[in-house]
């Protein structure tokens, strides 16, 4: 019993830390955390996804400790910890951020203070280290506390060998942001794409953070090429998918991009293009973010034309 208590001690400490942590992301103001339930869904033995508020969390458990992908908002840490407790007694050893946004990295300070090693792409630490302004949302985000910053960063790729699997992590061309990574569990045949794939709507292209529509298309093609019919694909938001769902989403994005490009060449204004409802046929499958995505496509195309 004393051994069991010792294993739980880091998790209890996380819950205490979370209760006094200040929320870093302005997105958090839109969430009523009291109503949120964090639930775990098994992908394969020892590998789960947690659904709550914010980005989907990947959780690998086993003899080497707990490895998680993203950590949602800071006030949800106690609920996230409680969900992890149902899977394992092992403390969280690694937190990998798929990008810098607070709905994916808001719990970093809590987990970092409890002893987890936070890992991310170089650009994630750079952006979290200073005030950022997301123009598409008209939202400033102050620099993160020191304990929330990634302590291990990489420029291209890194591989973790934990819990009986090799976890290949690689940076993609600027897509949702300039710090996006794809996480591939080679043995489990699971891919976590972060917000490079949003299964609830058309993608949010954070141009203020270096994101590009072209990069999302390239990344979707990369993941499709390395996946097979049995691959489980975890998006940043929405339900777990397969490669055919990813392909359909990528086709929708490419189609809308081509339609906007045609109207840009015809010298239409953004207001005229939005009025055309060029993405209407995809509203049922992916209802979110249509006008914002079209604005991002328009801005990207017109910026390229002006250079």
What does this structure look like?
By secondary structure, the protein is α/β, with parallel strands linked by helices. It has a single domain (2-255), classed as Ribonuclease Z/Hydroxyacylglutathione hydrolase-like (Metallo-beta-lactamase, Chain A, 4-Layer Sandwich), CATH 3.60.15.10. It is built from nine helices and 14 strands. It has helices at 2-19, 77-85, 102-105, 108-113, 122-128, 213-226, 243-265, 270-275, 290-306, and strands at 39-44, 47-51, 57-60, 66-69, 92-96, 117-121, 132-134, 139-141, 152-154, 157-162, 165-171, 181-185, 190-192, 232-234. Strands 1-2-3-4-5-6-9 form a seven-stranded mixed β-sheet. The protein has a five-stranded mixed β-sheet with strand order 10-11-12-13-14, with no helix packed on it. α6 (213-226) packs antiparallel against α7 (243-265). The protein is globular.
List the helices and strands and how they pair.
Elements: H1 2-19, E1 39-44, E2 47-51, E3 57-60, E4 66-69, H2 77-85, E5 92-96, H3 102-105, H4 108-113, E6 117-121, H5 122-128, E7 132-134, E8 139-141, E9 152-154, E10 157-162, E11 165-171, E12 181-185, E13 190-192, H6 213-226, E14 232-234, H7 243-265, H8 270-275, H9 290-306
Parallel strand pairs: 4-5, 5-6, 6-9, 13-14
Antiparallel strand pairs: 1-2, 2-3, 3-4, 7-8, 10-11, 11-12, 12-13
Helix pairs in contact: 1-2, 6-7, 7-9
The global form is globular
Helical fraction? 25-40%
How does the major sheet shape up? 7 strands, mixed
List segments where confidence is low: pLDDT < 50 over at least 5 consecutive residues: 1-26
**Count of helices?**
9
Give the terminus-to-terminus CA distance. 67 Å
Radius of gyration using CA atoms only: 19 Å
Q: If classified by CATH, what would the architecture be? A: 4-Layer Sandwich
Overall SS class: alpha/beta
């Amino acid at each position: 019993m004393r051994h069991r208590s010792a294993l739980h001690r880091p998790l209890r400490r996380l819950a205490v830390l979370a209760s006094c942590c200040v929320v870093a992301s302005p997105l958090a103001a839109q969430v009523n955390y009291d109503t949120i339930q964090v639930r775990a869904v098994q992908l394969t033995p020892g590998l789960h996804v947690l659904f709550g508020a914010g980005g989907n969390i990947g959780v690998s458990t086993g003899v080497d400790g707990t490895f998680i992908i993203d950590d949602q908002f800071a006030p949800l840490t106690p609920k996230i910890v409680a969900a992890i407790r149902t899977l394992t007694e092992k403390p969280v050893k690694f937190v990998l951020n798929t990008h810098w946004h607070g709905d994916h990295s808001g719990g970093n300070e809590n987990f970092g203070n409890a002893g987890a090693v936070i890992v991310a792409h170089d650009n994630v630490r750079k952006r979290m280290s200073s005030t950022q302004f997301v123009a598409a949302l008209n939202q400033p985000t102050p620099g993160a506390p020191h304990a929330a910053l990634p302590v291990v960063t990489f420029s291209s790729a890194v591989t973790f060998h934990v819990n009986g699997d090799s976890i290949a992590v690689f940076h993609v061309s600027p897509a949702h942001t300039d710090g996006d990574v794809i996480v591939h569990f080679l043995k489990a045949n699971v891919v976590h794409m972060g917000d490079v794939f949003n299964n609830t709507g058309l993608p949010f292209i954070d141009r203020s953070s270096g994101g590009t529509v072209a990069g999302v298309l390239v990344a979707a093609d990369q993941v499709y090429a390395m996946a097979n019919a049995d691959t489980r694909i975890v998006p940043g938001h929405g339900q777990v998918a397969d490669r055919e769902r990813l392909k359909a989403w990528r086709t929708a994005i490419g189609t809308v991009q081509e339609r906007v490009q045609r109207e840009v060449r015809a010298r239409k204004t953004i207001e005229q293009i939005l009025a055309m409802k060029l993405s209407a046929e995809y509203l049922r499958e992916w209802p979110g973010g249509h006008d914002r995505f079209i604005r991002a496509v328009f801005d990207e195309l017109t910026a390229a034309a002006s250079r």
